[in-house]
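Hello again, I could really use a second opinion on something today. I've dropped the whole record in just underneath, so have a look.
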Amino acid sequence: EVQLVESGGGLAQPGGSLRLSCAASGFSFSDYSMTWVRQAPGKGLEWVSTVYTIGTASYALSVKGRFTISRDNARNTVYLDMTGLKPEDTAVYYCKGSRPFDLDVWGQGTQVTVSS
């Protein structure tokens, strides 16, 4: 079964840190670019970051310098290290796998809440 399972969400204080993980199964993980997107309450999906098959990464301006995406192909897992969290980072975070000419694979999401 093709599957992405996110974990690591929760409650953090402003300025705090969290690490999200997304474990892949059922497909050739190393062939896929992996992306984190988020959806804040009442808003649409927002792209956060992508790590490509060659290991390079790109970030939304809103998170650049605070978030770091990485992948471990041996563990079929992508990570999002979030530091300097702000209340506006509160959202459901989803990971997505993509490759050309194939359907995207989505996880079920993990809630991140930043509040004092």
